[in-house]
């Protein structure tokens, strides 16, 4: 299922979402301009390599500088290819504005970075000996999905379902679409623990960690009613218009 529309109404322009998408795209364009050797050095410096930190914890060394923990944040602005970038930015564009609208710009940015950090920590915790650089915004975006499911469980999302190459447009509840997505991430994460070779190059536990962070933190950061007027019935709410349709 590929989501193509989220109909939850918003009042304010999603400035931070636009900035995050622009930042991710600019960083990827810079990545794409590097030579192969330069790209390897760039990824090693700014992507997240769990084994570096597990070695530090087991050896008890204390010579890590604050800059050594920068990859826990910078990894969420790197991507492994155009398809990786497009899928992540499409999901951010589709669901991010609704969350930014309810949290406010400053809280939304802090929320996004916190979910990305939670995703990084989860990845290091469950893949302590991995030397494969982890990169991508999907952990932070998983936090947005978790928050969306918590705030708008009954909002309707239009998705495309391909059956024998024939696209079908279907309306589903947010809790159904996002819930199925999360179950897939959890299943793949568990399989990765039982059969490490089955996990491939996807940081499944980062998705799980980011989602749980967003599901938990998002509702705590929602604007108060004094700062954000609620929608009245004639304005539509939770993804429905005044007649109960999407």
Automatic annotation (TrEMBL):
Transmembrane ranges, per UniProt, are: 12-30, 72-96, 108-126, 132-152, 159-184, 204-222
For this protein, the record's Gene3D superfamilies field holds: Rhomboid-like
* GO biological-process terms attached to the record: proteolysis
Q: Which UniProt keywords apply?
A: Hydrolase, Membrane, Protease, Transmembrane, Transmembrane helix
Tell me which SUPFAM superfamilies the record gives.
Rhomboid-like (SSF144091)
Q: Peptidase S54 rhomboid domain: from which residue to which, for each copy?
A: 69-223
Per the record, what is one GO cellular component?
Answer: membrane
The cellular location(s) given in this protein's UniProt record come to:
Membrane
Q: Which GO terms describe its molecular function?
A: serine-type endopeptidase activity
Protein name according to UniProt: Membrane associated serine protease, rhomboid family
| Organism listed in the record | Bradyrhizobium lablabi
Instruction: Output the lineage of the source organism.
Output: Bacteria, Pseudomonadati, Pseudomonadota, Alphaproteobacteria, Hyphomicrobiales
